[in-house]
Write a structure and sequence with these properties.
With 334 residues, the protein is α/β, with parallel strands linked by helices. It is built from 12 helices and 8 strands. It has an 8-stranded mixed beta sheet with strand order 3-2-1-4-5-6-7-8, sandwiched between helices. Strand 4, helix 7 (156-174) and strand 5 (178-187) form a beta-alpha-beta unit. The termini are far apart.
Length: 334
């Protein structure tokens, strides 16, 4: 199975039933073989057996109670890791711990990553505990149809998908919470392939903003920003023992997909990937820590791949530095 040569239209992903029949057929014929479990099975034939040993390692997975993050976290615990699992629901976190082979190795931390105050509080708790993280997985992410403004005055998907990732990673680095050889992994999405980096549009938090809020675009822009942020960390810590990656899980049958794209899920349910298949590359990156040839890449099915499908997504006046400068303006502790 070859690397995908294009990316699914986000409008089709959102409302496939509303697309013209010819375009709809072309969409499914072109992309299903790669992003679905068909692509996973076709590529995995050529993979060697992955039997990771994470004994003595501490993982922290944000969004680690269900879905892709939960599956990666479960694999880590079952391979001997100590796990700090972060989620919004104490009940889901408790249920997750019991689903692992070593529930005593799971530490649950409740935090809502749509709120900066809860990110800061989590950081304080971890620092007080003297935590040292070997693998950080920034997995939490949401896609909303409608604009939702948090009580802190920011757009929800912006905070959840990129700003909180930045704050947590920056602070974990500056506070010494990450080990000298830590691996940091961002979970992105194919939604970013249709978008260049447009920093000024990341946080559309007012009805007066231009362009008007469009949930699928907000999601895609934040996922593109994850790729560029990873590029920034790679530059900043080049030559150290730390590794930074961003990965794409493919089309996975998660609860989030069911909530945000019900028609898409209904159409492709029989070939959508399972959570472990979506999480496979996370576990692979943590176990193997492969070299990355390009400064800006995304990892998909255990292989480094281009972060740009369309030339137009390279056309931006923004850079990793302008992205970080903007995130800094929203990162102050209130």
């Amino acid at each position: 199975m070859t690397t995908p040569t294009s990316a699914p239209s986000t409008s089709l992903l959102r409302n496939p039933a509303n697309a013209p029949l010819k375009k709809l057929i072309s969409f499914y014929v072109r992309f299903t073989p790669s992003y679905s479990k068909i692509g996973y099975y076709s590529r995995s034939v050529f993979w060697g057996s992955l039997k990771p040993d994470f004994r003595g390692k501490t993982w922290l997975v944000i969004g680690g109670s269900e879905g892709i993050g939960g599956s990666a976290a479960r694999s880590a615990v079952n391979a001997g890791a100590r796990l700090i699992s972060v989620g919004r629901s104490a009940d889901k976190l408790a249920a997750f711990a019991q689903s692992t082979e070593h529930p005593d190795q799971v530490q649950a931390e409740v935090a809502d990553f749509s709120l900066r105050s809860e990110v800061w509080a989590l950081l304080d708790r971890l620092q007080a505990q003297g935590v040292k993280i070997d693998v950080l997985v920034n997995n939490v992410g949401i896609q909303k149809r409608d604009q939702i403004i948090t009580k802190e005055g920011l757009e929800t998907s912006f905070v959840t998908n990129i700003l909180s990732h930045y704050i947590f990673t920056r602070e974990a680095l500056s506070r010494g919470l990450l080990s000298d050889n830590a691996t940091v992994i961002e979970t992105a999405s194919g939604g970013m392939y249709n978008h260049p980096l447009v920093v000024k549009d990341l946080n559309i938090a007012s009805a007066n903003n231009t362009p008007a809020y469009l949930g699928v675009r907000a999601y895609g822009l934040s996922k593109r920003a994850q790729v560029v942020l990873t590029q920034y960390w790679r530059r900043k810590f080049a030559g150290t023992g730390r590794r930074f990656y961003v990965m794409h899980p493919g089309w996975v049958d998660t609860a989030a997909v069911g909530r945000s794209m019900p028609r898409f899920r209904e159409t492709l349910k029989s070939v959508l990937r399972s959570d472990p298949q979506g999480a496979d590359t996370i576990v692979y990156l943590a176990a193997k820590r492969p070299d990355q040839r390009e400064e800006e890449s995304i990892w998909f099915d255990r292989k480094e791949r281009t972060a740009h499908i369309f030339p137009r997504t390279k056309e931006t006046t923004d850079t990793p530095e302008t992205l970080v400068a903007s995130l800094e303006t929203y990162s102050q502790r209130s």
